[in-house]
Amino acid sequence: MTRPKILVTRRWPEAVERKLAEDFDLHLNTPDTPLGEEALRAAMRDYDAILPTVTDRLSAAVFAGGAVRTKILANYGVGFSHIDTEAARAAGVVVTNTPDVLSDCTADIAMTLLLSVARRAGEGERELREGRWAGWRPTHLIGTKVTGATLGIIGFGRIGQAVAQRAHFGFGMRIVVQNRSRVAEETLARYGAVQVGSVDELLPLCDFVSLHCPGGAANRHLIDARRLGLMRKGAFLVNTARGEVVDETALAAALRAGTIAGAGLDVFDREPHVPDDLLSAPNTVLLPHLGSASRATREAMGFRAVENLTAFFEGRPPRDRVV
Ligand code: 8YV
């Protein structure tokens, strides 16, 4: 039997690429740069499977024009708002993702941002490296105490719960949750969490708000100027979900006006572009989409995608099918 012809759009950890080369007719996109719409359209006609990442915009145009050869998009990552799932469904293309394996590392980055922005670690590091540190003084770089504060978690799936575990057990934080469906009582009880009915209800209650909902059209600008106005004046926003969930212009304005105290962001609306008004906004810690970036996690994500691909081509249901 001929081996399925597959395209890996960005370079993956070596061990995973080796495994893919054993089992499939593997094609790597070199150099390791994002593919544009035209290249993705052509790939859909050339390959049995494509293994995309967040840098591949698989819009409706990529699926349009009929005669698609690709039968499965085995996405490298849990979030898949870069794939037009309606267009995939209409074209009969299966989509899978890689949940679970990146929850811990993404939650770690959310806590890194929360702690860094609350305790002004980014500002402090820049001051020290730039030779501006004039020595210890009682009033220098005074931040906000994290232990015992209230954390609002929007989206209480696997990553949201991993954040709750760290915040509740590690930092004695009180947890308030908003989720699109009702969370089981025993799950809430595990973290001493309370679920509220809406984002509007959650925001005024919290010292910190961390976003863990999906991206995509449904949640675009979920945090907009009006909702930023509902946050406490001394509160902080953390985003490790998707850039489009936050209106970046409104966020920069709120930071500048002091409506909220700070923001820690790992994701941006038009990555790798970061708007100037966010770069220059006060009290921000900005990271280049590092959520899942540990060796163990990136390998586990790759092997999870291999598992999905193998199941599909062996005629079994892939474990992580989302379309
Ligand atoms: C990935 C992520 O690195 O899994 C996700 O949704 O945001 C990141 O952890 C990225 O999506 C890779 O495609």
From TrEMBL:
Q: Does the keyword Magnesium apply?
A: no
Membrane-spanning segments: none
Which Pfam families does this chain map to?
2-Hacid_dh (PF00389), 2-Hacid_dh_C (PF02826)
Q: Where is the D-isomer specific 2-hydroxyacid dehydrogenase catalytic domain?
A: 7-322
Entry keyword Nucleotidyltransferase:
no
Report the InterPro entries cross-referenced here.
D-isomer_2-hydroxyacid_DH, D-isomer_2_OHA_DH_cat_dom, D-isomer_DH_CS, D-isomer_DH_NAD-bd, NAD(P)-bd_dom_sf
Output the PROSITE patterns linked to this UniProt entry.
Answer: D_2_HYDROXYACID_DH_2 (PS00670), D_2_HYDROXYACID_DH_3 (PS00671)
Record key words, sorted: Oxidoreductase
The residues covered by the D-isomer specific 2-hydroxyacid dehydrogenase NAD-binding domain are 111-291
Sequence similarity:
Belongs to the D-isomer specific 2-hydroxyacid dehydrogenase family.
The protein depicted here goes by the name: D-glycerate dehydrogenase
Q: What organism does the UniProt record list as the source?
A: Paragemmobacter amnigenus
Q: Provide the organism lineage as a comma list.
A: Bacteria, Pseudomonadati, Pseudomonadota, Alphaproteobacteria, Rhodobacterales
